[in-house]
C-alpha cells in the first residue's frame, strides 16, 4: 500500500498491532502447552500476521524517510529563494520583532543579520513615518495584504524609500503569529518622480511664462490647457478662430507650420499678424490624443517688415529718380532745345506718362516751348498757345510747388476747364524760375489715370527736374548774354588796339624825326628823354600787338581738325630760328609726336611762346637747351617743354598765366607779360590744361595736356 491510501496505517497503529500480535503469540504458547495441534495452527497464523505487519512497518519507515528527504530539499530550496531573492524579505513576529532577514534586506539596511534579528522593526524605519506601521500591521493581523511606502534607515546612506508589502504566515506550527514583509527599493522611481515633478514644474513655468500663445487641445479640438499669452490674445475662444480654419481635418502625426496670417483678434486687440505651429503629442504607435497649438504674434515684426518694404520701395524709387536725373544731367546734346526735349523724354518714360512739356508763361499766355510724347498723334506741338487759367499749370504756379494728381476725376479739380476740355486724368508739374522770376512750368500728363498714387519720391523727382531745367535755361541765358558781352569786348579790344597803334606810330615817328634833326642841338638829357619816349612808344605798340593777338584767340571760324604735332613744332621752330641762333641754343625734339584735334594756328602760337620763353629766360653762363617730349594716355596727350634756364619761384606758379603778370623788369628781360596768358587761353579753347614745374637756377618744365580724341 502506498502512503496516504485509505488502508495505510500509521507507525503508531502498526506498533499497536504488533503489541497485540505479541500478546496473541504468548497466549498461543500457553495453549500450545495445553493443546499442541490447535496451538500450532494458531501460532502459524499469528506469526504470518506478524510478518505481514513487520513488512508494512518497514515499508512505512522507508516512505517516511523519502518524505523527510523531499521535505528537506524543498526546505533548502525555499531557504535559498528567501536568502538570495533580489527583494528584501523580513519575517516579523507578533511583537513586530524581526525574526529573520535575507541578504537583500541586510543590504537595504546596511547591517548584518545579527544586528537585525531580534530587533523591533520600527527601529529601521524613519521616525517621521513609524506611525504608518501601526495601520500596516493591524491590517495584516486581520488577514489583509498590506502595502505601505516608508523610508528605511541605513547606517551608511540617506533614508531609502521602499514599498513594504506584508502577508500573514499563520501559526499552524505552534510558533505563534508571524508575517512575511517584503521591502522593494523605489529610490529610482522616486528620483524619476522627482525629475518628473521638476520637469512638470519647468514645463508649467515655460508654458505659462512663454510670450508665445500656446494651447493644448485633444483630438476633438477641446481645450485642455491654455497659457496666459493665449488668453491675452484670444480670450476664451475655443481654439482661436484666426487660425482654426487652417488646421487639418484629422490630427496627423507630423508637425505643421502655418505661415503668417492676417486676422482680427477677438479680444479687442485689433488686427494682427500671426504665425502658427501645430505639434502632435503622440500616444501609442498610431494615435495622437493631443496637439499643441502655438500662435506667435508677429504684428510688430510684420508692421516693421511692411514699413521696411515701403521704405525700400521708396528708396528704390528715389534711386530710380536719381538714376533718371543723372541720365538727364549727362545728356551730351550740345543744342539746348534738343537737350531739354531728350530730358522730357527720359522723365516721361520714368514716370510712365504720355506727354511731357516745358512751357513759357507771359501774363495769361501759355506757350509750349518743348515737348515729348509717347506718340506724336495727340501730342501738343511746340509753339502751341493756351490761355493760362485753362491749364493745370496755373495750379502749379499758384501753389508755387509741385502739383501731383494721379486721378483727376476723383480729385477736387474734377470740374477744371482743362479736364472738361482735354480729359487729362493724370498731371504732375512744377514751376521753373530763371534769374529769380517765374519762367513757366515743366509738367507731365496722361489721358488715363495711373495705377498708383504719386509719392514723395515722384514729387521730389519733378521738383529736382524743374530746378535742373531752370539751371539749363538760366545757363543758356547767361551764356547768350556772356557770348554777346565777350563779342562786344573783343570787338572793342580789337578796335581800340587797332586805333591806338596809329597815334603811337605817329608819336614814334615824330620822336625819331626830332632825334635825327635836332640831336646835335640838344644836350645829353634831352637826347635821353627822347630815347625814353621812343622806347615807351615801341613798348606800347608791342603791347597793343600782343593784346590784338590775345583777342584774336578763338575768334576764328576755322573748326577743330586733326593736326600733327610734328608739323606744329616744325612751324613754330621755323619762326624761332633766328632767336635760337642768336641765343646759341639747342632744341631737342622727340622723333615721334602724336596727332590730335585742334586749331593749327593757335597751337603754333602756343608752342612758339613756350619755346621762345625757354630761350629768353636763360642764364648768362650756359647756353639754353630746350627738350620737347610727349606722352600719350588713354584720354589725353601730355607735351612737355623743358629748359635749363633761370627757373621760377614756387609762389608764382599759379599766377604767371594771368595777363600782364611779369616777374622781371623790362631792363632785364623784354616782354609784355601776355605770352603765357595767350598760352592759357589757347589751352582753354582746346579743353586742356597747362601747369609748370620749376627749380630756381636749374630750369623749368611746362606741361601741356590736350584731349586725345580725334
CATH level-3 fold name of the largest domain = Beta-Lactamase
Shape label: elongated
CATH structural class of the largest domain: Alpha Beta
Secondary structure: helix percent: 40-55%
Coarse structural class: alpha+beta
- C-alpha Rg, in Å? 65 Å
Lateral strand order in the biggest sheet: 13-12-11-16-15-14
Summarize the SSE layout with pairings.
Elements: H1 11-34, H2 36-84, E1 88-93, E2 98-101, H3 103-109, H4 131-141, E3 146-152, E4 160-168, E5 178-185, H5 187-209, E6 213-218, E7 223-226, H6 228-234, H7 241-244, E8 256-264, E9 271-281, E10 290-297, H8 299-329, H9 336-351, E11 355-362, E12 365-373, E13 385-387, H10 393-399, E14 403-405, H11 417-422, E15 426-434, E16 437-446, H12 456-518, H13 524-552, E17 561-564, H14 565-575, H15 577-582, E18 586-589, E19 595-598, H16 600-616, E20 625-632, E21 636-642, H17 675-685, E22 689-695, E23 699-707
Parallel strand pairs: 18-20
Antiparallel strand pairs: 1-2, 1-5, 3-4, 4-5, 6-7, 6-10, 8-9, 9-10, 11-12, 11-16, 12-13, 14-15, 15-16, 17-19, 20-21, 21-23, 22-23
Helix pairs in contact: 1-2, 8-9, 8-12, 9-12, 12-13, 14-16, 16-17
